């Protein structure tokens, strides 16, 4: 009977999960008395990526039958991922383009036109002026970018459309009506400065989410702007792995660094440098 009890204790000790190191920008508080568990948290302004959804509960549990953390079985490592910085607001953005005939193409005229459009409706972000070969008239292609911010935390577990998107839709409705209406005051005012709108050229992009800071990307699950993890860089609004021959040890970056000479490698040089 005594031998059986000793064997059980030894087996239990052999199956204790490995100690957990605190994540980058986070903390861990563990209890190794059965049942073994750890409470984990990220510092204020940081959180785990939704990719590691199992950690959102803030508690790690150890499976005493095999000595592995539950999350270790799912992710293949007992090391905790980084806590990533997040921005409070995400931006809803939409792009509107349309064309118009103008009197001439020069910087003075274009600056006057931009000021007039700003007073009439919304700011013109970009314009390209050229001679249209078919009509033999000067023509500009206009691009307007409408952007509004919101806090995704206000819409957790909600199907409600963010106010930011609703506000942009209201502006778009007014814009479309003014551009396509035959007798709008907007058109009349533009004609006075030699601008003839071409309503059939009006195009609107889909709504998309963007971050206002380089090195951040929108989390597809939470819609929050979160830092790109180490080993990646932000490119065109997405976190992409560093290519072979480059590395990045920091979070929230938009460039990767060239790998050093092998003679100066350290233990934290990533796999992309050794392939």
Automatic annotation (TrEMBL):
Entries under InterPro entries matching the protein: Tyr-kin_ephrin_A/B_rcpt-like
Coiled-coil positions: none
Tyrosine-protein kinase ephrin type A/B receptor-like domain ranges (all copies): 236-263
Organism placement in taxonomy: Eukaryota, Metazoa, Ecdysozoa, Arthropoda, Chelicerata
Transmembrane segments: none
Protein name: Tyrosine-protein kinase ephrin type A/B receptor-like domain-containing protein
Pfam family, one: Ephrin_rec_like
